[in-house]
Amino acid sequence: MGTESEDASNSNAPMEISWQFDYLFDSDKLKSLYSKAKRDQWDAEQDIDWDLQVDPSRPLFGRDVMAVFHVPLVQRLSASQQATLRAHLAAHQLSQILHGEQGALMTAGALTHAVPDHQGKLYAATQAMDEARHVEVFAAYIHKLAVTYPMSLTLKRLIDLTLGADSWVKIAIGMNMVVEGLALGTFHNVLAVTECELLRRIMRGVIRDESRHVGFGNLYVADAIKAMHADEREEVADFAFMAIKLMRDARHRREPDPAFALVLDRSGIDRNDFYKSVLEMRASGQKVELPKDQVHPFKHLMMPALVRVGAVTDRSRKRYEAEGIPVIEERSTLERMETGAPPAMN
Ligand SMILES: [Fe+2]
Ligand SMILES: [Fe+2]
Q1: Which of 30, 164, 247, 262 stands the most exposed, by the fewest C-beta atoms within 10 Å?
Q2: Distance 67 CA to ligand 1 centre (A)
């Protein structure tokens, strides 16, 4: 079955050529992040026990934390149908993680190219190596599952928007704040619920790396935004808004994402019946609450990270308001997770 997102694609992106002949580190924080990145490299071939068994027929997630399981039609399915759906959802989610890591790898390469100073280039190169290892480790894990899924259109659009941006600040916002906020939150959530020991070990290593990546976004981008001319700052704020809106719009799209629709098909669930049931659930006013120990990537990570670096301006705040997107400033979970510590939910 072919989908738009399954095809390998090429497109052009503008990129400044940025040489830097001042080989100095003048930020202690960035220097220590770079040193940590070098020291904490791990090797998917050597440090992961690939002999640990993965049973692709069993669900990878121990609890039904996904919103899908609140849809009435899904709740009416038999236990074996639910088990099939759970296995496909897990393969779908892990496939998105793998495709996202490929996007992160390309983005880190673009950052290495485009950031304007020596220390940023060296750090971004460590991130590129981290992402290469993540692609390697998730590709190897997914190989053990019986099924893989194409990239979701929203994730692809978000990463394409980021890779096509005309400045490194926008690339860092799209990647290190929006996409990696999503990734870091998802990884913590998977780690909290998975019963697969191999996946737990992989997630622990990846989370340690991703915490650095989110931290870099903050350190590096905040100063750059502060130093910008007001017009340029607004342009960056508009880009951040576009990235967030693209993601939020996906929640209300009329057409199902092809990759997710494939999950339904393969689980023997009729697409139309499913979406009818979702609409009925929404119309009844039933709200799906995430369990307390689950991270909400938008609320806990992305939005506070954007506010903190100054990527939300007074003007763009009005745009969020007009779209009904809350601007959240509370950042205790974000700050805790940047240190690599597990989230303390409030
Ligand atoms: Fe990664
Ligand atoms: Fe990353």
Answers
A1: 164
A2: 24
